[in-house]
Specification:
- This protein has ten helices and 16 strands.
- It is of the alpha/beta class and 315 residues long.
- It has two domains: 157 residues, Quinone Oxidoreductase, Chain A, domain 1 (Alpha-Beta Complex), CATH 3.90.180.10; 131 residues, NAD(P)-binding Rossmann-like Domain (Rossmann fold).
- The strands form three sheets. Strands 3, 5, 6, 7, 8, 15 and 16 form a seven-stranded mixed sheet that branches.
- Helix 4 packs across helix 5.
- The longest helix has 14 residues.
- The protein is globular and about 55 Å long.
- The structure holds NADP nicotinamide-adenine-dinucleotide phosphate (NAP).
- The site of NADP nicotinamide-adenine-dinucleotide phosphate (NAP) has 33 residues, from helix 1, helix 4, helix 5 and strand 10.
């Protein structure tokens, strides 16, 4: 099979589509023939060598965290995960694993969900990593309840577009920030108020939000405190030392700062599927590239201008 590999850290051109062995599955695992994968900012950071603590420095290195495809083999699956050959599946690899930019990927069955029948593989590719991130940030860390108000900063990217829709399903009223180019997109996805951050900065705003979800990641609890209720929660996507420190410092406070670290979960994929079936969660795809053109896809993600997801077509 072929997989995207790189033999040194560097710019997008270091990635090559090269031969690699088809993975051997172990007990409890599924072999997936990949149809599409999505591109996430993390893939660019890994390729540039910014996460050497996680990636190590041995080459070749592989890339990619989420995938959609069909099951081609299974091994000793527990009764709770009855996947079989031909099933259409999607999901995310556990955070410290990569390698979904490939023709075949082995996955633990417990990390996969079934793609709803009305959703094409292409659309499904826009869901796993960003859908899980937004779900776990809003439901688990933000503890969003029906009737609450949620502010989403940087709402037009992959995480933000999933976040608007999920906050709405959880019953919240949503306010967003994006540049002027994406105000209409945010409103279409469910924002009752869409603010252009190029005209109005966060410190000029007033409000009383239960949750501030910093999907883009350029705010802090201190910068947005004036927008939170006394028990409000700030949730960020940026796993920096400063943000973990702020999390620890606010553990016992009424206003809390939280850092989402997305976890692979078949159960959460099933929740996302349920909302897709009910017509409450939709894929937002900006651009599609063939997998061999992954350098162009990474160059585009690095512009930080993606509206929703960038996906790679594998077959
Ligand atoms: N911790 C975790 O588990 C986890 C999981 C997933 C993602 N992340 C992180 O979350 C961040 C967002 O990921 P993503 O996939 O959503 O990225 P993305 O899709 O590449 O985000 C692109 C969006 O960012 C917006 N943007 C650019 N500059 C902005 C600014 N100054 N203020 C507000 N928005 C701005 C753009 O909107 P405009 O063009 O309208 O400005 C664009 O729509 C990344 O840093 C990623 O690494 C973390």
């Amino acid at each position: 099979m072929k997989a995207i590999q790189y033999h040194r850290f560097g710019p997008p051109i270091v990635m090559k589509y090269e031969e690699a062995p088809i993975p051997l599955i172990k007990s409890g695992e599924v072999l997936v023939k990949v149809h599409y994968v999505s591109v996430n900012p993390k893939d660019c950071f890994l390729r540039m060598g910014k996460y050497k603590v996680i990636s190590g420095t041995r080459f070749p290195q592989f890339l990619g965290s989420d995938l959609v495809g069909e099951v081609v083999a299974t091994k000793n699956l527990p009764a709770a995960y009855p996947f079989k050959e031909g099933d259409r599946v999607y999901g995310m690899l556990p955070s410290l694993k990569v390698g979904s930019y490939a023709e075949y990927v082995r996955m633990k069955a417990k990390h996969l969900g079934h793609i709803p029948s009305q959703m094409a593989y292409r659309e499904a590719a826009a869901i796993p990593l960003v859908g899980l991130t937004a779900l776990q940030a809003l439901r688990d860390l933000g503890q969003v309840q029906a009737g609450q108000s949620v502010f989403i900063n940087g709402a037009s990217g992959g995480v933000g577009t999933a976040g608007i829709q999920i906050a709405k399903v959880l019953g919240a009223e949503v306010t967003t920030t994006s540049s002027w180019r994406n105000l209409e997109l945010c409103a279409q996805l469910g924002a009752s108020q869409a603010i252009d951050y190029t005209k109005t900065s966060i410190d000029q705003l007033n409000g009383s939000f239960d949750v501030f979800f910093d999907a883009y990641g350029n705010q802090t609890l201190d910068k947005v405190r004036h927008l939170l209720t006394p028990n409000g929660r700030y949730v960020t996507t940026i796993p920096s030392l400063a943000n973990f420190a702020q999390h620890a410092l606010t553990c016992l406070n009424a206003q809390k700062s939280k850092v989402v670290a997305v976890k692979a979960s078949g159960k959460d994929m099933d929740q996302l599927s349920e909302w897709i079936r009910a017509g409450k969660l939709h894929a937002v795809i900006d651009r599609e590239f063939a997998i061999a053109d992954v350098p162009d896809a990474h160059a585009y993600i690095q512009t930080k201008r993606a509206r929703g997801k960038v996906i790679l077509r594998v077959i």
